[in-house]
């Protein structure tokens, strides 16, 4: 087996657990390559002899590399960065959580030993998750124009609301007068969209959700659409400059630009170990049932 490890940095409080990860990989003859972002942490904490480490930097380095899994070490933000490295390579990603909530990176560092054992023994499932693709005449985000959680249209440089003209499959849906608009995948329904009143959707539901951010008209509510739908969006604002964000990345969006948003032509594969599921994550991360009246 051969794995790739991606992360940004390793905090002191997680050093012991990540040291165990490297030791287990070596003990079980698992070949690994490490992203250059982790170089500083590896050298600072002496996880391994750095002279013998093989590194990678990009999507191109992972192509035809024989990688079985990518281990994403960090929080959900790090996991979202990982998909830009994997893209359409169909390499399953396991998220090891050194962040906070951890909906995507849902394997705590305390379970690293059992996680490695499960991977080696094939005791896992690989869930395929849909992504969003953004196309525009400005070629925003270049080849990284895919998002696992959401694409957001946001106001910028002004406290005034913006108008977001939205077409659904060639038919005018609405002109949202709002602070912004979120187009979310089912995976992202527990992220930004949820905080703005959007519904939670099961990952395999085959839907996206359009969620307005603080709309002027209170009867404008989130709407669930088929994930085969095609959205076309243009924005008007007093400032003339707005933002388009894909997960944690953003670029300037000018008035009148046309954005086309639809499902990507590939999916990302997320590793779920034996004791993991989306329903368990909902219950545990959102503290469902933790009510003194139930105890």
Provide the descriptors you would attach to this structure in a database record.
single chain, 295 residues, alpha/beta, Rossmann fold, Tumour Suppressor Smad4, 2 domains, 6-stranded parallel beta sheet, 7 helices, 18 strands
- Name of the level-1 CATH class of the largest domain: Alpha Beta
Note the overall shape: globular
- Uncertain regions: pLDDT < 50 for 5+ in a row? none
Spell the H/E element sequence: EHEHEHEHEEHEEEEEEHEEEEEEH
Average pLDDT, all residues: 92
Estimated structural class: alpha/beta
The radius of gyration is 21 Å
Please give the alpha-carbon distance between the first and last residues.
46 Å
Q: How many helical stretches?
A: 7
Total domain units: 2
Number of strands: 18
SS strand fraction? 35-45%
Major beta-sheet overview: 6 strands, parallel
Q: Major sheet: order of its strands?
A: 3-2-1-4-5-6
Q: Architecture of the largest domain, according to CATH?
A: 3-Layer(aba) Sandwich
Q: Write the CATH homologous superfamily of the largest domain.
A: Probable inorganic polyphosphate/atp-NAD kinase, domain 1
- Helical fraction: 10-25%
In CATH, the topology of the largest domain is named Rossmann fold
């Amino acid at each position: 087996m051969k794995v790739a490890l991606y992360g940004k940095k390793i905090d002191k409080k997680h050093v012991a657990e990540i040291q165990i990860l490297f030791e287990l990989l070596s003990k079980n003859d698992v070949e690994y390559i490490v992203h250059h972002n982790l170089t500083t942490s590896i050298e600072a904490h002496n996880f391994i002899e750095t002279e013998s480490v093989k590194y990678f930097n990009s999507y191109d380095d992972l192509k035809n590399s024989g990688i079985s899994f990518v281990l994403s070490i960090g929080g959900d933000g790090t996991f979202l960065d990982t998909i830009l490295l994997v893209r359409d390579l169909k390499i399953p990603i396991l998220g090891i959580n050194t962040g906070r909530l951890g909906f995507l990176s849902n394997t705590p560092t305390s379970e690293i030993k059992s996680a490695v054992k499960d991977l080696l023994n094939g005791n896992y499932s690989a869930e395929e998750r849909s992504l969003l693709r953004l196309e525009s005449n400005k070629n925003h985000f270049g080849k990284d124009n895919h998002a696992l959680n959401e694409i957001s249209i946001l106001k910028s440089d002004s406290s005034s609301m913006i108008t977001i003209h939205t077409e659904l499959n060639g038919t005018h849906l609405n002109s949202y007068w709002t602070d912004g608009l979120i187009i979310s995948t089912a995976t992202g329904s527990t992220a930004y969209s949820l905080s703005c009143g959007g519904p939670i959707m099961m990952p395999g539901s085959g839907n996206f959700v359009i969620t307005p951010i603080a709309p002027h008209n209170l009867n404008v509510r989130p709407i669930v659409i088929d994930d085969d739908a095609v959205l076309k969006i243009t924005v008007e604002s007093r400032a003339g400059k707005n933002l388009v964000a894909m997960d944690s990345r953003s670029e300037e969006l000018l008035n009148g630009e046309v954005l086309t948003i639809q499902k990507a032509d590939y999916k990302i594969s997320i590793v779920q170990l034996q004791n993991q599921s989306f329903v368990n994550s909902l219950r545990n991360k959102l503290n469902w049932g933790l009510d003194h009246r139930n105890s």
